[in-house]
Fold VCBS repeat-containing protein.
Amino acid sequence: MKRRQFLAGLAAGGLLTERAHAFAPYPLKFRLAAPYAPALSFVEAGSDEFTGEKAALDQEHQLSRAVREGTLPFSKNCRGGSPAPRAYETLAEGVSRGAFGAEEGVAEGWTRWRASLGEVRSARFYALPDNIARFDIRALRDGRLEHRTGAWRVEWDGAEISRLEPLEETLVRGEKPWFHDVTGHAFEDDPAFREQLARGVPYWRARLDPACGLDVYGENGVAVADIDGDGLDEIYICQPGGLPNRLYKWDGGRLKDISAAAGLDLLDDTACALFVDLRNSGRQDLVLVRSNQPLLFLNDGHGKFQLAPDVFRFATKPQGSFTSVAAADFDRDGRLDLYFCCYVYYQSEAQYRYPVPYHDAQNGPPNFLFRNRLNEKPGYFEDVTAATGMNHNNNRFSFAATWCDYNGDGWPDLYVTNDFGRKNLYRNVEGQFRDVAEEAGVVDLGPGMSAAWLDYDGDGRPDLLVSNMWSACGQRVVNDAAFGPVRKDPALLSSYRHHVKGNSLYRNLGDGRFEYTGDAQGIEMCPWSWSCDGADVDNDGSPELYVACGMVNNGGSTDLMSYFYRQVVAKSPVRQTAAPAYENGWNAINQLIRQDYSWAAPEPNMFFARRAGRYYNFSGVSGLDLAEDSRAFAFTDIDGDGNLDIVLKSRCGPQVRVLQNDCGVDRNKLVLALRGTKSNRDAIGARVEVDGQVKWIAAGSGYLSQHTKRLHFGLSNKSKAEKVTVLWPTGERQDLGPLAAGFLYEVVEGQAQVAAKPLAKPSAWPKGPAVVADNVSRLHSTWFWEPVPLPEKRRGPGLLVVHAGETLPSIDGPVDRLDLRQAPVELAAAYSILRRYLFDHRVELETPLWLLVDGESKVRKIYAEAPDGGELKADLQSLGGPLPEPRGLPFPGIYTGRPRRDYYKFGGALLQAGYPEQALPYLEEMLRRTPDNPKALLAVGRIHLEGKRFDLARGVLQRAVELDPRLPEGWNELGGVEAQAGRWPEALKYYEKALALAPELPYVLLNAAHAQEEAGHGIEAERLFRRLLELEPNNVDAANGLGLFLAKQGKTDEARKLFEKAISIRRDDSSAINNLGVLYMNIGQPNDAIAAFRYGIQVAPDNETLYLNLARVHVQLGQRESARGVMRELLAKQPGNAMAQRALKSLEGQ
């Protein structure tokens, strides 16, 4: 292809454009696109290298819709077999399997099968590799609940099915749901439920000032415990920041809010809670996990909890967010110790750490083990993480941990569930730990969320259930030939397949090893799973499994799960190194979920019952398959009848549901409550066996969940338990029995006599009033808890109206109007970003925008609509009150630590949009609050560097690397300071420090290459350019830089190819286009040069250099009139361009 043909082809193809995903009524184009902006253009399936994703999603939608509507498009000559079973073979009670082979065509069989379903409640199909389509259909037929799961092999010819072969179908039936929802009844008398808990995070993220501590994820759990000794568990509901945690007590079948009376109405962002007797005092103390620190509240025995300050003495500084806690007496001294898990959540602009590589990240924050020293004066918890060996492999992204003596040696062991790779199994050898997950066979590579110990097969040994993620689109993408990590390293295919295969179950072999049985037991296919655990809810003697599911449902029509695998996971490096495309994928998806996109939602919770030696999916007949982004749940007995009920905690509203057990009422049961004397008083870690059934008392299990400490044993139709054995944490064995069914037994360590109390008679509660949930994100008139600085000084106090020429109502009072049409572009951009980041519901600027501003140019309140004069007057008169603004909180409560607004997000967004000077005040405000924040220092240093304030830049950046010497970006920017001053040897020293820390960081390689070239080290410069192109073959700047270097060396042919490559990747790259044109000028190909510059002007019409160089070519060819025409074009674009004016004057003079 000729040079001009190459350029013409690019021009004819048009520019690469980004798809818009949010339509702002006020049109505004930022100066720069954010680094993650290119990733936003691939939200739509089929728009990237995974071209088959659109067809797969369309097929899923078409099959699911066909079940609901009854029609399916078969091709004229469709082959295969009838999907309608000729019969159903009974496998166990309530479970049957389809037998295929009916003598009818595919279309006829489909029609018959569809008609047999009854009233379809939900239908989902999942397109998997190898043309497999799995289905999940829940229906009501002849008054019975039915749940079908199965798979077909389906081949498509365009939009029609050309072949369908049924592979399997399992049918589960139930006469009635296992549980029924009594939420309305339980909370009937509680206004806080209606006003707070019935509203989900989607509502609150657009209503609460993010400075209160709220975010989009909804990672808040539930705990139950009998804190007052009345025989019923109280319920503690953890809440996002700015909403008070709620403590409820049962009172006549209704829940009564006692949060404030107990001193536990905390407003701090609370992940989870754990009630345990930490002092062996007979009182349940409370451990709360906040994102930035754990807290201990001591129970005074009179219904009040008191904060114990500074009780956790960390040996090393925590690095991430605390996620969960689990308790056990690891050293067997009779006191309960605590293990805390830590994680790094995704914060978009404020992100500082990414899990790399995705499949096996080992750059997470460390977890902590604390020894209980509350017996000392003053009491405290000692950090013994390092001293006990718990630092072994302590570098993951941990969500949850659970204790159990899995090997029967009397010492509690710990399983830690980690996201992004391997889990840990810490074997306890007399108080010293080592991670033996590899040897034990429970590494469980995958996106772990939680785990639970239970004896699922009745052999008396603790087996292990682990929640991960099953994903159809994940399975498609990781098996696609375009999947990046496997293309780079084919050996990783099995690892990534494990990441998308779903939940895991491990059978304890009794010799320290485990056998994987998740596939054989049928429990893998759970979507995005969170808390998991097992309990014998139907009292048949075998545990059922319950799993909370769903990520982020924001009500949007587009789900990002396919995008997550295509643009995040598929961009992961294969080892721990910087990876801009991967990081930008994370940043992009975290922008999108803060808009109205959903991510892996809605997904129903899953429920499995074991029949005839394996588990089956009973979700559709359970009454528990709610799709509300559930996070946690607690097994508890709400009515004292011995049947385990469930309190469910979800991200969406209602955040809490109470589900009463209907499946266990007809079978016998007994309940045991243990009290230690030599052991810890809660008997945490005790093993109890009842006629072959074994259970363990735990404190903290699953994810963000605490279940009742009473052990419930189902006896089926037996009237008594013949043999009961308790193995206490001290190692002492206590034999009891026979024990009659129908009683709660209180067992005290070392006492032969047990107190018995009859269980209540089962009674079905009414549903109560309908629960009205609110999950709509919308603007409310809201006071800001912490005032927000405007991007400029404005007149105040008063009402600021930001508008674009709309007709505005007349309002009495001080009103300041800002017409964005007349404002400088950078000011309009700053207001657009201000509006976007006011809430965790990120929306574009809509005008008019009504803001109450104080005398310091800070926003105090936003109005959903224009206020009238009376409201404005009252609000202005009230501005003199205390700050933080109490009206920014919808409910009263207590903060133990004041949260702060994250100004880095404002500053970072402005910086990314190309407005560094507007970003500077927000970043400096961040530094006033946290002067030792390396990330903020780095950003401020970059702004000063760009503004050519070199001394300021140097001072700030040197402070950043003093605080964090392992900050490659800091050393890189210091190199930039010296480079700007022309001190190339000094610049190289800094770049080399950055490369020593991050040898594959692209922009450091690029800067170092340029510096080596300027310093006269051509061989090293070329090596660095080529190394960067090896790592990133599509790096435009590397191709352009190497091309320019080679052109100077006279290697014009390779230089030309590199410039053309750069332009083919980024078609409007004016630098590469200009360099190509100059190259053609220098090698005597003026017509090709003209074509290059003309193409450049077409795609980058504001770049003056292209016009000037084009004019020079025409002058060289003696085409002065053409040169003058080019200068006139430039002046038409830029009337005040002095260089163009001088050039035109010179040309006209000639």
User: Anything to note?
Assistant: The first helix runs from residue 3 to 13. The chain has a mean pLDDT of 94. The domain at 1101-1149 is CATH 1.20.58 (Methane Monooxygenase Hydroxylase; Chain G, domain 1). The two ends are 38 Å apart (CA to CA).
